[in-house]
């Protein structure tokens, strides 16, 4: 059995605002093992950011404990920060006027990388995320994908054993998102443990071994990723837009295909179909019922976590 690297036990955090107390986390207990990638899911306000901040020793818990490689987040914050990398998605947190290399240097120094190792570590981090060629350009000239890869380089330059990733692929085009998933997969293969917050099931499916569901500040689910995806009951949503009459067979659905709704507007109709599994049966059904339709476009979207929440009623919205 791989050794535990993150041990969270009975963790809680309350906030008091104008005499009202909000429980952001309540009695949260879980363990993350070496080389394990765990998806942390939960709707807005579920407590994900609060948990991430406590684990990276940026916020104190009000109860319970959290340890990173044996170091308590309250008693040994410096040791915790040296062992943990935090990567937030989006545009924030970079110095635009500085180059990519200078940005990494700044954060490497903050996270305790020794002076004599720093040049070599920065070069390696740039190389790992494919930014060596752009390293000496100001960050304001970077694309979204490049900025996101720079976030990864910054979060990993001090070689943390645990990574906390918050929405890492947000706003990226599919190619950049895939490149990022590959980079995260490589870190996992090197034995780094990852706690991944994402609303995209594709990220979680590709990378996570296990899924933790936070609802209203408590863990309401702890299961393998496969179990979680199967619980939704379908794999993708296909939206078909076509001209003319709605094929009668389409409205009934078919083996592996459920009809969510059909909207007709003048001569054009649009159907939303849930595909339970991609395979010959569902492909054959769709191509048969659409064979005579004047199809304008087809959009295929993988199942999103929000859809799974809706199906399982895991929302826990405040
Ligand atoms: N500094 C704070 N002061 C008061 N309440 C707070 C504070 N930080 C968080 N909360 C509350 O704690 C709860 C959990 O918030 P948190 O930001 O951890 O949720 P989240 O799951 O990260 O949400 P999101 O997906 O929207 O980022 C919310 O009700 C929030 O309003």
What's this, in brief?
This protein has 318 residues and is of the alpha/beta class. It contains 11 helices and 14 strands.
Number of strands: 14
User: What is the spatial order of strands in the main beta sheet?
Assistant: 6-7-8-3-9-10
Backbone structural class: alpha/beta
CATH class of the largest domain: Alpha Beta
Second CATH tier, the architecture of the largest domain? 3-Layer(aba) Sandwich
H/E element string?
A: EEEHEEHEHHHEHEHEEHEHEEHEH
Let me know the CATH homologous superfamily of the largest domain: P-loop containing nucleotide triphosphate hydrolases
Shape: globular
Mean pLDDT: 87
Please give the radius of gyration in angstroms: 23 Å
- Count of DSSP-assigned helices: 11
Q: How many strands, which pairing sense, and closed or not: the largest β-sheet?
A: 6 strands, mixed
Bound molecules: adenosine-5'-triphosphate
Q: Detail the poorly predicted runs.
A: none
Q: In words, what does this structure look like?
A:
Belongs to the ABC transporter superfamily. Its main location: membrane. One of its GO terms (biological process) is response to antibiotic. This protein has 318 residues and is of the alpha/beta class. The chain folds into two domains: 4-231, 3-Layer(aba) Sandwich (Rossmann fold), CATH 3.40.50; 235-302, Alpha-Beta Plaits. Helices cover 33% and strands 32% of the residues. It is built from eleven helices and 14 strands. It has helices at 48-55, 77-83, 100-110, 115-128, 144-156, 174-189, 201-207, 225-232, 248-251, 280-289, 305-312, and strands at residues 4-17, 20-33, 37-41, 63-68, 71-72, 84-88, 162-166, 193-197, 210-215, 218-224, 236-243, 257-265, 268-275, 294-302. The longest helix is centred in the middle third of the chain and has 16 residues, at 174-189. It is globular and about 70 Å long. The model has no long low-confidence stretch (mean pLDDT 87). Adenosine-5'-triphosphate binds at residues 15, 17, 22, 24, 42, 44-50, 318.
